[in-house]
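Tokens in:
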């Protein structure tokens, strides 16, 4: 057996060193590049995109599922671990997410409920669907901007500027919404969920809920208390379903399903699109009620 030539020995030892270095590299944990903003539900994503712009990709965690009963998969838990920031409402809304979110460092999670004083005029103070009111969306945007400013201080002023612009836009949108709904303040309105108080309440429009979201409230006593209201509307939630339609017929009300999560909106929809689509859906019923006090000139 012949001995290695000097050049062969150099090649052999170089290859051996490269192999050893690659093993050492594999044994070391690589730093995680945190670039994503993860949000629990689509309406919060619409708000977050107004603040993040193109600087941070926004990913929606819960799609096509009930946020109240949603539990993340293994892959989704891994996404949360890699996120720059996780935004959710809180255990009142996404109860099964609480354990996973609370395992994240405090600076990389933002629970909106309890973080500021949101507006509840005309709404159930225990209901977490805050995004259905533009003024609350503005407050959420300000919270998101401040947390992103802390995480990415080089972009702080950009985020805060976007939050100010969004707040001004939401003040205008709230006025438009309140003015459009105020004319229907005397129309009997029944809703399948307390959430809609956030949408109607600021305009002085009262809603009576069949359920508070806990699954109860549609018994005989509740139905009896809602009977004899006169011509009005029952608003449910998409998709339309036979049960809600039958309840509406029993109460003598027209029936329309609303889309509070924006599930029927296109992929490029904005938060304004969400509110304007809800207004169109609501008025498709409200405008059909005779003697509702609406000035035909406004229609």
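Residues out:
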């Amino acid at each position: 057996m012949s001995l290695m030539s000097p050049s062969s020995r150099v090649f052999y030892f170089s290859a051996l060193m490269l192999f050893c270095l690659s093993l050492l590299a594999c044994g070391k944990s690589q730093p995680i590049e945190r670039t994503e903003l993860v949000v629990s539900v689509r309406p919060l994503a619409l708000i977050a995109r107004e603040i993040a712009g193109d600087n941070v990709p926004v990913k929606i965690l819960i799609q096509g599922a009930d946020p109240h009963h949603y539990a993340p998969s293994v892959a989704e838990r891994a996404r949360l671990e890699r996120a720059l920031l996780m935004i959710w409402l809180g255990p009142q809304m996404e109860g099964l997410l609480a354990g996973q979110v609370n395992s994240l460092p405090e600076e990389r999670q933002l629970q909106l409920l309890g973080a500021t004083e949101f507006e509840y005029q005309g709404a159930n103070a225990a209901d977490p669907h805050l995004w259905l009111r533009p003024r609350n969306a503005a407050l959420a945007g300000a919270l998101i901007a401040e947390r992103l400013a802390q995480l990415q201080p080089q972009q702080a002023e950009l985020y805060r500027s976007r939050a100010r612009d969004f707040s001004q836009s939401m003040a205008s949108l709230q006025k438009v919404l309140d003015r459009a709904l105020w004319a229907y303040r005397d129309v009997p309105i029944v809703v399948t969920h307390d959430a809609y108080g956030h949408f109607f309440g600021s305009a002085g429009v009262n809603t009576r809920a069949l359920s508070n979201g806990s699954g109860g409230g549609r018994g005989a006593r509740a139905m009896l208390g809602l009977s004899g209201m006169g011509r009005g509307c029952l608003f449910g939630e998409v998709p339309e379903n036979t049960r809600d339609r039958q309840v509406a017929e029993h109460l003598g009300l027209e029936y329309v399903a609303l889309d509070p999560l924006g599930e029927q909106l296109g992929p490029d929809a904005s938060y304004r699109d969400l509110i304007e689509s809800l207004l169109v859906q609501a008025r498709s019923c409200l405008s059909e009620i005779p003697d509702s006090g609406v000035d035909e000139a406004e229609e």
